[in-house]
Amino acid sequence: MPNYNISVKSSNYNVLSDPQKKYNVGVNYEIPSKYLQYGNEILDTTNWVFDGTTSDYPLIDQAGDAYTPVNDQQLIVAINGLVQVPGIDYTISGTTIIFNTAPTAGDTVYVVGLSTTADLTRTINFVIDSGSAPMSSGIKGEMTLDVTGEIQSWTIVGDQDGQIQLDIGKVDYANFPNFASICGTERPQLGDIASNSVQRKNTNTTISSWNKALNAGDLLQFEVVYAINIQRCMVSMKLAL
Fold it and tell me: Which residue, of 113, 137, 152, is where some domain finishes?
């Protein structure tokens, strides 16, 4: 669980004697999200009966559903602690494993389905909160990256309908603090000042004008260009690793 540092910027605010006075808590923090590969799965062999004759057995996962490996190599199979050789000691046909030599009564068979799918994405979230005061323009904070990837999309959500536009800058460690915008002509925003439209959520999955490449060790800087009727918002960027 991350720790957040919160600072009260207005020293003349008194919670007890002046509860209506506006205050600014100045909270900016990032929320790490998962980027883990799906785990391997132990298959269910409890209903397999070994008699020295039967060589075909159904592959069932722990939820009771049929399990379909991509190929023989996707399984790790052990009989009495001895790992079997894929394609030689056993083969796969759809959701069935076929042993070259049928297991006998008393054998212990252990089957693991190896993961073939990975969630190779990471979502970078940055929250800007102005407390009860109107949100001002300006730089709101920085964060460092520990992964390398390419930005696929951005999403921004606000605490209420309103208008806000953010700019995001990037710099590597050697050139800090000389940030350069990565947003091109597609800055994350809610609503539009020109048309006087308002929004509470918005997303862009094309970001064709963005500088999308991010490297581990880069720093990102978040700036509010303008904000109207927004006191808290979160901007998220989905990263393909």
Answer: 113
